[in-house]
Write a sequence for this structure.
């Protein structure tokens, strides 16, 4: 009769060992899928902020040129 609780415990621990990592992996995959859908919607709507324009004029740097 002792083997039944031991076998049950063994099965439960095996399910726990496989189930927790699978649940974590599934949660990460679900979150990434939602993030990807959000990014795709932003790209289609053009709501993504444009990066700041780089300055076209270069600083003169007269002090650095005179040291040579």
């Amino acid at each position: 009769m002792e083997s039944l609780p031991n076998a049950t415990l063994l099965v439960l621990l095996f399910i726990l060992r496989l189930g927790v990592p699978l649940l974590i992996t599934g949660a990460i995959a679900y979150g990434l899928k939602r993030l990807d859908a959000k990014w795709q919607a932003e790209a289609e709507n053009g709501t993504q902020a444009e990066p700041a324009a780089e300055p076209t004029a270069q600083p003169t740097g007269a002090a650095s040129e005179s040291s040579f």
Q: What stands out?
A: The two ends are 92 Å apart (CA to CA). The CA atoms of residues 4 and 10 lie 10 Å apart. The chain has two helices and no strands. The mean pLDDT is 84.
